[in-house]
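fyi for ur records
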Amino acid sequence: MARSKAPLLPTTSSPLGDPLAALPIQLGLNRQSGQPLHSQLAEQLRLAVLAGALPADLRLPGSRSLAQSLGVTRGVVTEAYAELVAEGTLSAAVGSGTRVSAMQPCAKAPTQSGPAWFVAPPPPPVDDAVMDSGIHFKTGVTTSATLDERAWRQAWAYAAAQGIRGDYSDAAGESILRGALAAFVGRSRGLPASADDVLVTAGTLQALNLIVRGILPPASAVLFENPGYRAARQVFIDAGHTVHPLPLDQDGPLLHDLPPAKAVYVTPSHQFPLGVRMSLPRRLALLSWAAQHDALIIEDDYNGEFRYGAPPLPPLASLEQERGRVLYIGTLSKVLTPAVRTGFLVAPPALRPALIRARTLLDFGHPLPVQHALTHLLTHGELDKHVRRSRRWHAQVRETLTRELAELAPQAALSGIEAGLHVCLNLRDLDPEQVKAALAQRGVYVSTLAEFSVGEGVTNALLLGYGGLTVKEAEAGAKEIVRVVREMTPHHPLLRTSTLSSAKAKG
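which gave:
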Protein backbone atom coordinates (compact mmCIF):
# COMPACT_ATOMS: atom_id res chain seq x y z
CA MET A 1 0.00 0.00 0.00
CA ALA A 2 1.49 3.37 -0.97
CA ARG A 3 2.54 5.78 1.77
CA SER A 4 1.16 8.86 0.08
CA LYS A 5 2.01 11.36 2.80
CA ALA A 6 5.78 10.73 2.78
CA PRO A 7 7.48 13.10 0.30
CA LEU A 8 10.85 11.34 0.46
CA LEU A 9 11.08 7.56 0.73
CA PRO A 10 14.57 6.54 1.99
CA THR A 11 15.99 3.05 2.49
CA THR A 12 18.33 3.38 5.44
CA SER A 13 15.88 1.70 7.84
CA SER A 14 14.94 -1.27 5.63
CA PRO A 15 14.06 -4.25 7.80
CA LEU A 16 15.68 -7.66 7.48
CA GLY A 17 14.19 -9.42 4.46
CA ASP A 18 13.32 -6.19 2.75
CA PRO A 19 14.58 -6.37 -0.88
CA LEU A 20 16.14 -2.94 -0.45
CA ALA A 21 18.44 -4.33 2.23
CA ALA A 22 19.98 -6.69 -0.30
CA LEU A 23 20.87 -3.87 -2.71
CA PRO A 24 24.33 -2.27 -2.36
CA ILE A 25 22.83 1.19 -2.98
CA GLN A 26 20.18 3.42 -1.44
CA LEU A 27 17.05 4.36 -3.33
CA GLY A 28 14.83 7.31 -2.46
CA LEU A 29 11.87 8.79 -4.32
CA ASN A 30 10.75 12.38 -3.83
CA ARG A 31 7.04 12.88 -4.52
CA GLN A 32 7.35 16.67 -4.61
CA SER A 33 10.23 17.02 -7.08
CA GLY A 34 7.99 17.30 -10.13
CA GLN A 35 9.82 14.40 -11.82
CA PRO A 36 7.72 11.24 -12.30
CA LEU A 37 8.49 8.54 -9.74
CA HIS A 38 9.34 5.93 -12.38
CA SER A 39 11.82 8.38 -13.96
CA GLN A 40 13.47 8.99 -10.59
CA LEU A 41 13.84 5.26 -9.99
CA ALA A 42 15.17 4.59 -13.48
CA GLU A 43 17.70 7.42 -13.18
CA GLN A 44 19.02 6.20 -9.82
CA LEU A 45 19.40 2.61 -11.05
CA ARG A 46 21.05 3.76 -14.29
CA LEU A 47 23.66 5.89 -12.49
CA ALA A 48 24.37 3.03 -10.08
CA VAL A 49 24.99 0.63 -12.97
CA LEU A 50 27.25 3.10 -14.81
CA ALA A 51 29.24 3.74 -11.65
CA GLY A 52 29.69 0.01 -11.04
CA ALA A 53 27.71 0.03 -7.81
CA LEU A 54 25.32 -2.51 -9.31
CA PRO A 55 27.56 -5.17 -10.90
CA ALA A 56 26.77 -7.10 -14.06
CA ASP A 57 24.32 -10.03 -13.77
CA LEU A 58 23.07 -8.82 -10.36
CA ARG A 59 19.43 -9.86 -9.99
CA LEU A 60 17.22 -6.97 -8.94
CA PRO A 61 14.21 -7.35 -6.63
CA GLY A 62 10.90 -8.28 -8.20
CA SER A 63 8.67 -5.39 -9.16
CA ARG A 64 5.98 -6.25 -6.61
CA SER A 65 8.33 -6.54 -3.61
CA LEU A 66 10.40 -3.48 -4.58
CA ALA A 67 7.25 -1.41 -5.03
CA GLN A 68 6.01 -2.46 -1.60
CA SER A 69 9.36 -1.50 0.00
CA LEU A 70 9.41 1.89 -1.75
CA GLY A 71 5.79 2.59 -0.90
CA VAL A 72 4.68 3.01 -4.51
CA THR A 73 2.46 1.16 -6.91
CA ARG A 74 3.86 -1.78 -8.82
CA GLY A 75 3.44 0.17 -12.06
CA VAL A 76 6.16 2.65 -10.99
CA VAL A 77 8.73 -0.15 -10.75
CA THR A 78 7.63 -2.02 -13.88
CA GLU A 79 7.76 1.18 -15.94
CA ALA A 80 11.25 2.00 -14.63
CA TYR A 81 12.47 -1.53 -15.33
CA ALA A 82 10.96 -1.44 -18.82
CA GLU A 83 12.75 1.82 -19.63
CA LEU A 84 16.12 0.40 -18.51
CA VAL A 85 15.58 -2.87 -20.36
CA ALA A 86 14.72 -0.99 -23.54
CA GLU A 87 17.97 0.98 -23.40
CA GLY A 88 20.05 -2.10 -22.51
CA THR A 89 20.96 -1.15 -18.96
CA LEU A 90 18.94 -4.12 -17.62
CA SER A 91 17.91 -7.42 -19.15
CA ALA A 92 14.81 -9.48 -18.40
CA ALA A 93 14.03 -13.13 -19.09
CA VAL A 94 11.23 -15.42 -17.99
CA GLY A 95 12.40 -17.49 -15.03
CA SER A 96 15.56 -15.40 -14.60
CA GLY A 97 14.07 -12.11 -13.40
CA THR A 98 15.48 -8.65 -14.08
CA ARG A 99 19.26 -8.45 -14.07
CA VAL A 100 22.00 -5.85 -14.66
CA SER A 101 23.37 -6.15 -18.17
CA ALA A 102 27.05 -6.77 -18.80
CA MET A 103 28.16 -3.16 -19.21
CA GLN A 104 31.49 -1.40 -18.83
CA PRO A 105 31.03 0.70 -15.70
CA CYS A 106 32.59 4.12 -15.24
CA ALA A 107 35.60 3.80 -12.97
CA LYS A 108 34.70 7.11 -11.34
CA ALA A 109 31.98 9.66 -11.41
CA PRO A 110 31.91 11.62 -14.69
CA THR A 111 34.71 14.19 -14.81
CA GLN A 112 34.87 17.59 -16.47
CA SER A 113 38.30 17.21 -18.03
CA GLY A 114 37.18 16.06 -21.48
CA PRO A 115 39.43 14.13 -23.90
CA ALA A 116 43.14 13.85 -23.08
CA TRP A 117 44.07 16.01 -26.07
CA PHE A 118 41.77 18.89 -25.08
CA VAL A 119 43.51 22.01 -23.78
CA ALA A 120 41.13 24.45 -22.13
CA PRO A 121 41.53 27.97 -23.58
CA PRO A 122 41.78 31.04 -21.38
CA PRO A 123 38.61 33.02 -20.66
CA PRO A 124 37.46 35.32 -23.48
CA PRO A 125 39.09 38.78 -23.34
CA VAL A 126 35.94 40.66 -22.41
CA ASP A 127 34.81 42.45 -19.27
CA ASP A 128 32.62 40.52 -16.87
CA ALA A 129 28.99 41.49 -16.49
CA VAL A 130 28.44 44.23 -13.93
CA MET A 131 27.57 42.54 -10.65
CA ASP A 132 28.92 44.78 -7.90
CA SER A 133 27.17 47.94 -6.88
CA GLY A 134 29.01 51.16 -7.55
CA ILE A 135 29.83 53.30 -10.56
CA HIS A 136 31.15 51.35 -13.53
CA PHE A 137 32.94 53.26 -16.27
CA LYS A 138 32.51 50.24 -18.54
CA THR A 139 33.18 50.37 -22.26
CA GLY A 140 31.00 48.74 -24.86
CA VAL A 141 27.66 49.50 -23.21
CA THR A 142 24.96 52.05 -23.82
CA THR A 143 21.92 53.37 -22.01
CA SER A 144 18.42 51.98 -22.40
CA ALA A 145 16.89 55.06 -20.78
CA THR A 146 16.37 56.70 -24.17
CA LEU A 147 14.34 53.84 -25.62
CA ASP A 148 10.77 54.74 -26.57
CA GLU A 149 8.95 51.87 -24.89
CA ARG A 150 5.79 52.40 -26.95
CA ALA A 151 7.72 52.22 -30.23
CA TRP A 152 9.65 49.21 -28.92
CA ARG A 153 6.45 47.32 -28.11
CA GLN A 154 4.93 48.23 -31.47
CA ALA A 155 7.99 46.86 -33.28
CA TRP A 156 7.70 43.50 -31.55
CA ALA A 157 3.95 43.41 -32.08
CA TYR A 158 4.62 43.92 -35.77
CA ALA A 159 7.16 41.06 -35.68
CA ALA A 160 4.65 38.76 -33.97
CA ALA A 161 2.01 39.56 -36.58
CA GLN A 162 4.21 38.37 -39.46
CA GLY A 163 3.38 34.75 -38.82
CA ILE A 164 5.64 31.73 -38.68
CA ARG A 165 7.39 30.45 -41.78
CA GLY A 166 8.29 26.82 -42.28
CA ASP A 167 11.48 27.40 -44.25
CA TYR A 168 14.82 29.09 -43.71
CA SER A 169 15.23 32.76 -44.49
CA ASP A 170 17.90 34.41 -46.61
CA ALA A 171 21.25 33.84 -44.89
CA ALA A 172 22.27 37.39 -45.87
CA GLY A 173 19.19 38.83 -44.15
CA GLU A 174 15.72 39.81 -45.31
CA SER A 175 15.97 42.14 -48.29
CA ILE A 176 13.69 44.75 -46.73
CA LEU A 177 15.91 44.94 -43.62
CA ARG A 178 19.07 45.07 -45.71
CA GLY A 179 17.59 47.93 -47.71
CA ALA A 180 16.61 49.78 -44.53
CA LEU A 181 20.11 49.32 -43.08
CA ALA A 182 21.67 50.53 -46.33
CA ALA A 183 19.53 53.68 -46.18
CA PHE A 184 20.40 54.17 -42.50
CA VAL A 185 24.14 53.89 -43.03
CA GLY A 186 23.85 56.27 -45.95
CA ARG A 187 22.17 59.07 -44.02
CA SER A 188 23.93 58.52 -40.67
CA ARG A 189 27.45 57.73 -41.82
CA GLY A 190 27.63 59.00 -45.39
CA LEU A 191 28.25 55.60 -46.96
CA PRO A 192 26.31 54.98 -50.18
CA ALA A 193 24.99 51.42 -50.18
CA SER A 194 22.17 49.30 -51.51
CA ALA A 195 20.40 46.26 -50.09
CA ASP A 196 22.64 44.00 -52.16
CA ASP A 197 25.72 45.46 -50.46
CA VAL A 198 24.56 44.59 -46.94
CA LEU A 199 24.85 41.38 -44.95
CA VAL A 200 22.95 41.21 -41.65
CA THR A 201 25.12 39.83 -38.82
CA ALA A 202 24.82 39.06 -35.13
CA GLY A 203 27.17 41.92 -34.26
CA THR A 204 30.77 42.96 -34.79
CA LEU A 205 32.40 39.78 -33.51
CA GLN A 206 30.33 37.58 -35.79
CA ALA A 207 31.15 39.82 -38.74
CA LEU A 208 34.84 39.36 -37.97
CA ASN A 209 34.41 35.61 -37.64
CA LEU A 210 32.78 35.51 -41.07
CA ILE A 211 35.69 37.48 -42.55
CA VAL A 212 38.50 35.51 -40.96
CA ARG A 213 36.95 32.15 -41.82
CA GLY A 214 35.27 32.93 -45.10
CA ILE A 215 37.67 35.30 -46.85
CA LEU A 216 41.19 35.33 -45.40
CA PRO A 217 43.52 32.52 -46.51
CA PRO A 218 44.71 30.21 -43.72
CA ALA A 219 47.49 31.57 -41.49
CA SER A 220 47.24 35.10 -42.91
CA ALA A 221 49.17 38.01 -41.47
CA VAL A 222 46.89 40.74 -40.11
CA LEU A 223 47.79 44.23 -38.90
CA PHE A 224 45.81 45.18 -35.82
CA GLU A 225 45.68 48.49 -33.94
CA ASN A 226 47.74 48.62 -30.75
CA PRO A 227 46.17 49.31 -28.32
CA GLY A 228 43.00 47.80 -29.70
CA TYR A 229 39.78 45.88 -29.23
CA ARG A 230 40.83 42.74 -27.32
CA ALA A 231 38.01 40.45 -28.36
CA ALA A 232 38.44 41.33 -32.03
CA ARG A 233 42.17 40.61 -31.82
CA GLN A 234 41.42 37.22 -30.29
CA VAL A 235 39.07 36.35 -33.16
CA PHE A 236 42.00 36.56 -35.59
CA ILE A 237 44.31 34.61 -33.29
CA ASP A 238 41.80 31.83 -32.62
CA ALA A 239 41.21 31.47 -36.37
CA GLY A 240 44.92 30.71 -36.83
CA HIS A 241 46.03 34.05 -38.25
CA THR A 242 49.15 35.95 -37.19
CA VAL A 243 48.45 39.38 -35.67
CA HIS A 244 51.04 42.15 -35.92
CA PRO A 245 50.61 45.32 -33.83
CA LEU A 246 49.80 48.46 -35.80
CA PRO A 247 51.24 51.54 -34.06
CA LEU A 248 49.15 54.68 -33.70
CA ASP A 249 49.52 58.40 -33.14
CA GLN A 250 47.01 61.23 -32.79
CA ASP A 251 46.02 60.94 -36.47
CA GLY A 252 45.60 57.18 -36.65
CA PRO A 253 47.80 54.29 -37.81
CA LEU A 254 51.46 54.78 -38.66
CA LEU A 255 52.08 53.16 -42.02
CA HIS A 256 55.89 53.11 -42.20
CA ASP A 257 57.96 49.90 -41.97
CA LEU A 258 54.96 47.60 -41.73
CA PRO A 259 55.30 43.85 -42.35
CA PRO A 260 53.44 42.34 -45.33
CA ALA A 261 49.83 41.53 -44.47
CA LYS A 262 46.63 40.27 -46.08
CA ALA A 263 44.40 42.56 -43.98
CA VAL A 264 44.43 45.49 -41.58
CA TYR A 265 41.83 46.13 -38.87
CA VAL A 266 41.08 49.76 -37.92
CA THR A 267 38.48 51.80 -36.02
CA PRO A 268 38.82 55.18 -37.78
CA SER A 269 35.76 57.06 -36.48
CA HIS A 270 36.80 56.78 -32.80
CA GLN A 271 39.79 54.53 -32.27
CA PHE A 272 39.24 51.95 -29.60
CA PRO A 273 40.48 52.59 -26.98
CA LEU A 274 42.56 55.75 -27.57
CA GLY A 275 39.59 57.67 -28.96
CA VAL A 276 41.53 59.45 -31.73
CA ARG A 277 39.93 59.99 -35.11
CA MET A 278 41.84 58.98 -38.21
CA SER A 279 42.63 62.11 -40.21
CA LEU A 280 41.62 62.38 -43.86
CA PRO A 281 45.24 62.31 -45.14
CA ARG A 282 45.89 59.18 -43.07
CA ARG A 283 42.71 57.55 -44.44
CA LEU A 284 43.84 58.18 -48.00
CA ALA A 285 47.31 56.88 -47.17
CA LEU A 286 45.85 53.68 -45.71
CA LEU A 287 43.77 53.11 -48.86
CA SER A 288 46.89 53.62 -50.95
CA TRP A 289 48.85 51.21 -48.77
CA ALA A 290 46.15 48.55 -49.14
CA ALA A 291 46.11 48.90 -52.93
CA GLN A 292 49.89 48.75 -53.08
CA HIS A 293 50.09 45.60 -50.92
CA ASP A 294 46.93 43.88 -52.22
CA ALA A 295 45.43 43.91 -48.73
CA LEU A 296 41.92 44.19 -47.32
CA ILE A 297 40.86 46.93 -44.90
CA ILE A 298 38.42 45.93 -42.18
CA GLU A 299 36.74 49.16 -41.05
CA ASP A 300 34.96 48.77 -37.70
CA ASP A 301 32.65 51.77 -37.26
CA TYR A 302 31.22 50.63 -33.92
CA ASN A 303 29.72 53.97 -32.81
CA GLY A 304 30.07 56.38 -35.70
CA GLU A 305 26.74 58.08 -34.89
CA PHE A 306 28.06 59.76 -31.74
CA ARG A 307 29.96 62.96 -32.53
CA TYR A 308 30.08 66.07 -30.36
CA GLY A 309 30.79 69.19 -32.39
CA ALA A 310 33.40 67.48 -34.55
CA PRO A 311 32.80 67.43 -38.31
CA PRO A 312 32.07 64.00 -39.77
CA LEU A 313 34.87 62.27 -41.64
CA PRO A 314 34.02 60.04 -44.59
CA PRO A 315 34.23 56.28 -44.02
CA LEU A 316 37.13 54.54 -45.72
CA ALA A 317 34.61 52.52 -47.69
CA SER A 318 33.20 55.71 -49.24
CA LEU A 319 36.66 57.02 -50.20
CA GLU A 320 37.70 53.92 -52.09
CA GLN A 321 38.04 54.63 -55.81
CA GLU A 322 37.89 51.00 -56.89
CA ARG A 323 35.45 49.07 -54.71
CA GLY A 324 36.75 45.79 -53.45
CA ARG A 325 39.21 46.32 -50.60
CA VAL A 326 37.17 47.73 -47.71
CA LEU A 327 34.83 45.66 -45.54
CA TYR A 328 32.70 48.02 -43.48
CA ILE A 329 31.35 46.71 -40.15
CA GLY A 330 28.49 48.40 -38.31
CA THR A 331 26.51 47.44 -35.24
CA LEU A 332 23.25 48.37 -33.56
CA SER A 333 24.59 47.44 -30.12
CA LYS A 334 25.62 51.04 -29.33
CA VAL A 335 22.95 52.71 -31.46
CA LEU A 336 20.05 50.73 -30.01
CA THR A 337 20.93 47.95 -27.55
CA PRO A 338 23.23 44.91 -27.45
CA ALA A 339 20.13 42.86 -26.60
CA VAL A 340 19.10 42.57 -30.25
CA ARG A 341 22.53 41.13 -31.21
CA THR A 342 22.40 42.69 -34.65
CA GLY A 343 24.97 44.35 -36.87
CA PHE A 344 25.76 44.55 -40.56
CA LEU A 345 28.55 44.20 -43.08
CA VAL A 346 28.81 46.35 -46.18
CA ALA A 347 30.91 44.24 -48.51
CA PRO A 348 32.18 44.47 -52.11
CA PRO A 349 30.30 42.30 -54.62
CA ALA A 350 33.21 39.91 -55.17
CA LEU A 351 33.43 39.07 -51.45
CA ARG A 352 29.74 38.79 -50.54
CA PRO A 353 29.18 35.19 -51.70
CA ALA A 354 32.02 33.96 -49.47
CA LEU A 355 30.56 35.83 -46.49
CA ILE A 356 27.07 34.48 -47.13
CA ARG A 357 28.47 30.96 -47.41
CA ALA A 358 30.25 31.38 -44.06
CA ARG A 359 27.04 32.67 -42.46
CA THR A 360 25.04 29.77 -43.89
CA LEU A 361 27.44 27.21 -42.43
CA LEU A 362 27.58 29.03 -39.12
CA ASP A 363 23.88 29.41 -38.28
CA PHE A 364 21.91 29.84 -41.55
CA GLY A 365 21.05 33.46 -40.87
CA HIS A 366 19.54 35.90 -38.42
CA PRO A 367 16.36 35.21 -36.38
CA LEU A 368 13.35 36.40 -38.36
CA PRO A 369 11.40 37.98 -35.45
CA VAL A 370 14.41 40.18 -34.66
CA GLN A 371 14.72 41.18 -38.31
CA HIS A 372 11.02 42.06 -38.51
CA ALA A 373 11.13 44.18 -35.34
CA LEU A 374 14.23 46.08 -36.50
CA THR A 375 12.71 46.61 -39.93
CA HIS A 376 9.71 48.26 -38.28
CA LEU A 377 11.94 50.55 -36.20
CA LEU A 378 14.01 51.55 -39.23
CA THR A 379 11.24 52.05 -41.76
CA HIS A 380 9.08 54.05 -39.34
CA GLY A 381 11.91 56.42 -38.44
CA GLU A 382 12.04 55.25 -34.84
CA LEU A 383 15.72 54.33 -34.91
CA ASP A 384 16.67 57.79 -36.18
CA LYS A 385 14.64 59.38 -33.40
CA HIS A 386 16.32 57.10 -30.88
CA VAL A 387 19.77 58.08 -32.17
CA ARG A 388 18.95 61.77 -31.73
CA ARG A 389 17.71 61.19 -28.16
CA SER A 390 20.73 59.07 -27.32
CA ARG A 391 23.16 61.60 -28.77
CA ARG A 392 21.70 64.33 -26.55
CA TRP A 393 21.80 62.03 -23.51
CA HIS A 394 25.41 60.97 -24.04
CA ALA A 395 26.47 64.54 -24.83
CA GLN A 396 25.20 65.66 -21.42
CA VAL A 397 27.02 62.84 -19.65
CA ARG A 398 30.21 63.61 -21.59
CA GLU A 399 29.94 67.34 -20.76
CA THR A 400 29.59 66.56 -17.05
CA LEU A 401 32.54 64.19 -17.12
CA THR A 402 34.84 66.58 -18.95
CA ARG A 403 33.86 69.49 -16.68
CA GLU A 404 34.58 67.59 -13.48
CA LEU A 405 37.84 66.04 -14.69
CA ALA A 406 39.14 69.35 -16.06
CA GLU A 407 40.15 70.17 -12.48
CA LEU A 408 42.99 67.64 -12.73
CA ALA A 409 44.92 69.59 -15.38
CA PRO A 410 47.83 69.52 -15.89
CA GLN A 411 48.38 66.37 -13.81
CA ALA A 412 45.81 64.51 -15.90
CA ALA A 413 44.07 65.37 -19.16
CA LEU A 414 41.29 63.89 -21.25
CA SER A 415 41.61 62.76 -24.85
CA GLY A 416 39.25 61.16 -27.34
CA ILE A 417 36.37 63.43 -26.35
CA GLU A 418 35.20 64.39 -29.86
CA ALA A 419 33.22 61.23 -30.51
CA GLY A 420 32.18 57.86 -29.15
CA LEU A 421 31.11 56.68 -25.71
CA HIS A 422 34.42 56.59 -23.86
CA VAL A 423 37.35 58.87 -23.11
CA CYS A 424 40.95 58.40 -21.98
CA LEU A 425 42.25 60.10 -18.86
CA ASN A 426 45.99 60.46 -19.43
CA LEU A 427 48.00 60.45 -16.20
CA ARG A 428 51.32 62.24 -16.08
CA ASP A 429 53.17 60.62 -13.17
CA LEU A 430 50.82 58.07 -11.62
CA ASP A 431 50.61 54.33 -12.12
CA PRO A 432 47.17 53.66 -13.72
CA GLU A 433 46.90 50.26 -12.02
CA GLN A 434 47.37 51.83 -8.60
CA VAL A 435 44.78 54.49 -9.39
CA LYS A 436 42.39 51.80 -10.63
CA ALA A 437 42.83 49.80 -7.42
CA ALA A 438 42.31 52.86 -5.23
CA LEU A 439 39.14 53.77 -7.11
CA ALA A 440 37.77 50.24 -6.77
CA GLN A 441 38.05 50.55 -3.00
CA ARG A 442 35.71 53.54 -3.28
CA GLY A 443 33.21 51.74 -5.52
CA VAL A 444 34.35 53.30 -8.80
CA TYR A 445 35.48 50.85 -11.48
CA VAL A 446 37.63 51.79 -14.48
CA SER A 447 39.95 50.12 -17.00
CA THR A 448 43.50 50.99 -18.05
CA LEU A 449 45.00 51.22 -21.52
CA ALA A 450 47.45 48.47 -20.63
CA GLU A 451 44.57 45.99 -20.65
CA PHE A 452 44.12 46.61 -24.40
CA SER A 453 47.77 46.77 -25.41
CA VAL A 454 50.48 44.32 -26.43
CA GLY A 455 54.19 44.95 -26.05
CA GLU A 456 55.83 47.92 -24.41
CA GLY A 457 55.33 51.67 -24.57
CA VAL A 458 51.80 51.72 -23.14
CA THR A 459 50.38 55.15 -22.40
CA ASN A 460 49.64 55.85 -18.73
CA ALA A 461 45.90 56.32 -18.95
CA LEU A 462 42.56 55.25 -17.55
CA LEU A 463 39.79 54.23 -19.91
CA LEU A 464 36.42 55.69 -18.92
CA GLY A 465 33.35 54.32 -20.70
CA TYR A 466 30.32 56.49 -19.98
CA GLY A 467 27.72 54.99 -22.34
CA GLY A 468 25.85 53.27 -19.50
CA LEU A 469 25.99 56.15 -16.99
CA THR A 470 23.57 58.90 -16.05
CA VAL A 471 24.70 62.48 -15.56
CA LYS A 472 24.49 62.00 -11.79
CA GLU A 473 26.60 58.83 -11.88
CA ALA A 474 29.19 60.41 -14.15
CA GLU A 475 29.46 63.41 -11.84
CA ALA A 476 29.84 61.28 -8.70
CA GLY A 477 32.37 59.00 -10.37
CA ALA A 478 34.41 61.88 -11.73
CA LYS A 479 34.58 63.53 -8.31
CA GLU A 480 35.98 60.30 -6.85
CA ILE A 481 38.56 60.13 -9.63
CA VAL A 482 39.62 63.70 -8.86
CA ARG A 483 39.95 62.90 -5.15
CA VAL A 484 42.01 59.78 -5.73
CA VAL A 485 44.36 61.39 -8.25
CA ARG A 486 44.93 64.36 -5.94
CA GLU A 487 45.52 62.14 -2.91
CA MET A 488 48.08 60.13 -4.87
CA THR A 489 49.82 63.31 -6.06
CA PRO A 490 51.27 65.02 -2.95
CA HIS A 491 52.88 67.81 -4.95
CA HIS A 492 49.62 68.82 -6.62
CA PRO A 493 49.18 72.60 -6.02
CA LEU A 494 45.53 72.37 -4.99
CA LEU A 495 46.28 69.61 -2.50
CA ARG A 496 49.30 71.49 -1.13
CA THR A 497 47.22 74.64 -0.67
CA SER A 498 44.52 72.68 1.11
CA THR A 499 47.08 70.99 3.35
CA LEU A 500 48.76 74.29 4.31
CA SER A 501 45.42 75.90 5.08
CA SER A 502 44.48 72.98 7.30
CA ALA A 503 47.82 73.17 9.11
CA LYS A 504 47.40 76.90 9.79
CA ALA A 505 43.89 76.33 11.12
CA LYS A 506 45.17 73.70 13.54
CA GLY A 507 48.05 75.94 14.64
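The longest strand covers residues 326-331. thats all i got for now
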